[in-house]
Amino acid sequence: MQMTRADVQKALARLRGATADGHEAQSHGYRLHPPLTEAEALAVEAQLGVRLPTEYRDFVTLVGDGGAGPGFGIHSLREWMAKGVKARRKSREDLADPSRPFGRPVTVREASRLGGFPTHGMIALCLTGCGGAFGLVTAGLERGWVWSIDNVSAFAPASQEVPTYFEGATGDDRFRINEEFHAAQLAISNRERLGFWAWYRLWLEERRDASA
Fold first, then answer.
1. Can you give the C-alpha Rg of the chain in angstroms?
2. For position 178, what pLDDT does the model report?
3. Residues 33-57: pLDDT tens digits?
4. For the segment 194-206, what is each residue's pLDDT rounded down to a tens digit?
5. Residue 81: what are its φ and ψ, rounded to 5°?
6. Is the CA virtual torsion 86, 90, 95, 98 positive or negative?
7. Strand, helix or coil at 157?
8. What percent of the chain lies above the pLDDT cut of 90?
9. 107-125 confidence digits (pLDDT tens)
């Protein structure tokens, strides 16, 4: 369910009052950047060569152009535009085309072969540390869904679930459990998906519970 700017600002204000430290508080202070204007959103889409998925487009134009969010905060499209095409080429971002369909992997091996971001059909949402990130699919069958990118499986649909380890699990046990978890996430039979608002709301709820 979509949230209004007032809803998000109210939730963030509570987090600012309850959270004194941590990398999230330090990186974005639980504050949003001003929303994009319609003209700015159209300019970004012209650069990307694809229309932004509706939920995310509503967020950046009605709520905030990045800032408070998972990991080190949601990237600002306004700042991305300001860097210019030449600067982005230095970071390899122009090697991937957000308008080309995302090649959805269905096994851990395929996901690992796909590698890390950037890749076709996706834009980066945020960094989570240790090589991890979240991306939003912009083209293909997975368009509009959020995917996670990490050093274990490379790509997997963002999920409310996490691997669970039994008491006394060794490093090898954890590795095996992680592999099994990500294999289940990537399976065609897995219909669980998080759109932008479900993903963002989940983060707000997790931060609220952690600061309670």
1. 17
2. 87
3. 999 999 999 999 999 999 999 999 9
4. 999 999 999 999 9
5. -65, -40
6. negative
7. strand
8. 59
9. 989 998 888 888 999 999 9
How many beta carbons lie within 10 A of that of residue 31, not counting itself?
Answer: 13
- In the numeric block, the tokens 């509570």 are attached to 14
Q: What percent of the chain has pLDDT over 70?
A: 89
The pTM assigned to this predicted structure is 0.89
Distance separating alpha carbons of residues 187 and 67, to the nearest angstrom:
33
The three-class DSSP label of residue 44 is: helix
Distance from C-alpha of 143 to C-alpha of 92, rounded to nearest angstrom: 22
Q: Residue 127: what are its φ and ψ, rounded to 5°?
A: -100, 145
At position 15, the amino acid (one-letter code) is L
Phi/psi class of residue 47: alpha, beta or left (left: φ > 0; alpha: ψ in -120 to 50)? alpha
> 């932008």: which residue's tokens?
196
- Written as one string, the DSSP assignment of 78-123 is HHHHHHHHHHHHHTTGGGS-TTSPP----SHHHHHHH-SS--TTEE
Q: CA 105 to CA 116: how far, in whole Å?
A: 13
Nearest Cα neighbor of 5 from 212, 200, 203 is 200
Picking from 178, 176, 90, 71, the residue whose alpha carbon sits closest to that of residue 133 is: 71
